[in-house]
Amino acid sequence: MYNLNGMALQDALPKGCFGNVKPKTVKGFYGTLKTALKQAVAWGILIVDPTVGLRTPRVPKKKPKVLTIDELVRLLAAAKQYKYYLVIRLLALTGARLGEILGLHWSDVDFAKGTLTIMRAADVRHRKEKDDTKTEASPRTMKLDVETLTLLAAMKERKVMSVTGLIFHHEGRVVREDAIRRTMNYALKRAGLEHTKLHALRHGAGSILLDEGKSLAAVSEFLGHSSTATTAAIYAHAVRQGESIANLLTE
User: Fold this and answer.
1) Which of 125, 124, 88 is nearest to 103 (CA)?
2) % of the chain residues with pLDDT over 90
3) What stretches of 38-127 adopt beta strand conformation (E)?
4) pLDDT above 90 for 56
5) Backbone angles phi, psi at 78, to 5 degrees
6) What angle do CA 160, 162, 167 make, to 5 degrees?
7) If DSSP codes are grouped into helix, strand and coil, which group holds residue 198?
8) Parallel, antiparallel or unpaired: strands 169-170 and 173-174
9) Closest CA to 162 of 123, 119, 201, 106
10) Residues 31-40: what's their mean pLDDT?
11) How far apart are CA 135 and CA 138, in angstroms?
């Protein structure tokens, strides 16, 4: 059997042995190493597990990339050229999660009141509908602007209804996640903007509202967070000052 020095291991690992890789990847290497050496002890290959007490490196939190109002205006203008523009628009203006938008039914839109109600979230990975949302706080109703309501009404007029009443569907199933991501990427490129993740639209909506002076509690409710602590943790990267942000884009 072999014996490894835990202190020597702790000292050697950070010294460039992983090459030019991201901190999150390095943390994954640590996890794999711990699992392998623990198993080696179980099999009798090692006397003791040298990773006991090994300090896993911290992954520094990145400041979420968000679009400014001007950038958002450019993105939405460019996205109009693509099939899933309305999905991108709803994500940007409501701050909803992708699964929440792709899980919308026509019954969730009240054209008379001009509102949209989040009642459920689709499983976008497996393209399945779900009966509930991510958290108990996720169900919420928000006002929509006239342009978005007009686009939805026009879409309802011309689109073949799915059996379940899904607004966005492909042959009756939840739209593919990568189709929305491609639309986002195409629109960003057309608008001359740097690559930004789709989820940044949600962060952007929350950031814009905080910048406009909305309270943390109001933004937490707007985003459907389980608590204001969640909202505070996500937006701790900046000191910032719920409803659709569409009115802010036209001021």
Assistant:
1) 124
2) 34
3) 109-110, 115-118
4) no
5) -70, -35
6) 85
7) coil
8) antiparallel
9) 106
10) 86
11) 5
Cα–chain-centroid distance for residue 5? 42
93 contacts 246 by C-beta, under 8 angstroms = yes
In a 13 Å sphere around the CA of 85, the CA atoms on its Cβ side amount to 17
Judge if pTM exceeds 0.85: no
What local confidence, expressed as pLDDT, does residue 53 receive?
76
CA distances from 49 to 34, 64, 98, 133, 225 (A): 8, 38, 43, 42, 41
User: Contact 54/34 with Cβ under 8 angstroms?
Assistant: yes
Fold of the domain spanning 1-60? DNA polymerase; domain 1 (1.10.150)
Q: What is the pLDDT of residue 41?
A: 87
pLDDT in tens, 119-165: 888 988 888 888 776 666 578 898 999 999 999 999 998 877 777 78
Q: Rounded to the nearest 5°, which phi and psi values hold at 100?
A: -70, -40
Say how far apart CA 205 and CA 116 lie, in whole Å: 16
Domain ranges in the chain are 1-60, 69-249
CATH superfamily assigned to domain 69-249: Intergrase catalytic core (1.10.443.10)
State the Cα–Cα distance between residues 103 and 122, nearest whole angstrom. 4
φ/ψ of 192, rounded to 5, equals 75, 30
Arithmetic mean of pLDDT, 159-173 = 84
Beta bridge partners of 51: none
Tokens of 237: 């990267």
